[in-house]
Predict the 3D structure of the following.
Amino acid sequence: MASVEANGIRIEYESHGDPARPAIVLIMGLGMQLVAWPDELVEGLVARGFRVVRFDNRDAGLSTQFDEHPAGPIAAAFMRWSLGWPVSAPYLLDDMANDTIGLLDALGIARAHVVGASMGGMIAQLLAIRHPARVASLTSMMSSTSARRLPQPKYDAFFALIKRPARDAGLDDLVDHFVHLFHVIGSPAYVTPLPLLQERLRRGLARAYRPFGTLRQLLAILASGDRSLLLPQITAPTLVIHGDADPLVPVAHGEDTAAKIPGAMLKVIRGMGHDLPPQLLPELTELIAAHCAAADAVAPAQAGARSPPAN
């Protein structure tokens, strides 16, 4: 692993594959770290001829934390959001999109295929809106337009998401807590085997645990608002992937995203929830790789191009 200073913060990242190959940047979701992108997915994309960059968002993992900013009462923020009132947050999703641009600049990547999961999909959408010249293609997974009229999470999924373990919880207790969360929000048709799920979670939790950072990221989602009027501006080839059994971000969110992005392709996976189960990694890898390759075929000279050296 390595880190760079970009957009005024420290960003922890990993780069896999040949730097001369077209780049795919993976943006993870709420509270999740770069290691939440399964190694099998990363390795599969590298094997298909891509350079793959995954990183910790601000307030997650080993990137800069914003602990000087209290998260504030989340319930009150949700109430304000539901009424269409402004929500206060230490930063917005646009700031997180600019973090990604800063990372690409630091790595000398002029254009990249952008793949985002959940909150990461929201950030990826903003990248395609605000920085179209930098985005070779967009893949938005299990994400949303953030339109308030869309179906809300199932109660048990939302409650499991916002419930926090005890402040003095040890590593084993934290693993048990997040095992329960993923059992609630995960794919009912593709259940991740318990030992593998525990191994994945233990790896991340031993690396870092930033519960207040997760709350600040949640505030950023609420404060950033609906992107519905902005999404028609996206010109990058777009693939929307969503599970029809997602209890946290119902499939209507993916359908709405695809409907509002010109020319977007929608892939609904039956039995998939709000996770990346091992049984679906071959299909997800192929979907992403084929989408990125098709975009490269349209603009081969631009995809994967590197930034010119500074004068």
In short: Strands lie at 2-6, 9-16, 23-27, 51-55, 112-117, 135-141, 238-243, 265-269. The first strand starts at residue 2 and ends at 6.
